[in-house]
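Data card: per-record layout.
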Amino acid sequence: MTIKSKPSSPEYRANYDKAFRASEKPKKVVYVAGKMSGCDHLNFKEFFRAQIWLEDQGWEVVNPAEMDVDDLILKDCSKTWEARITKDLRVIETKCDAIYMLAGWEDSRGACREYEKARELGLEIMYQAKNGSLGR
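The structure for this 136-residue chain is written out next.
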């Protein structure tokens, strides 16, 4: 049996690429929620650690620490807490399939609101272990 090699014409490649991209499933999007206020460095280390782990699991990650870092670097504290949580809840509602709750989230007013929004929307809810180890 003879196997023909793939045609190398630009038209074939364009059609092949289009068909391949169409067959790929888009990544599911997860939002990381947890306590920031009152934590050292706003708990950013834990948010970014969770982001890396979730990305390794195949998720596209929305990290509020990443969304806020530019404001903090530029010392732009003009945004109120209510403005930030409103923006975060809108992101959860419009872009996310799941939410990942960091350990200690129950002690955060914002994370509790994010959790309630995720429940209201029927999103998948995952929890970090109480000891801080990553996983579901």
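Known properties of this structure: Residues 1-5 have pLDDT under 50 and may be disordered. The first strand starts at residue 29 and ends at 33.

See the next section for split statistics.
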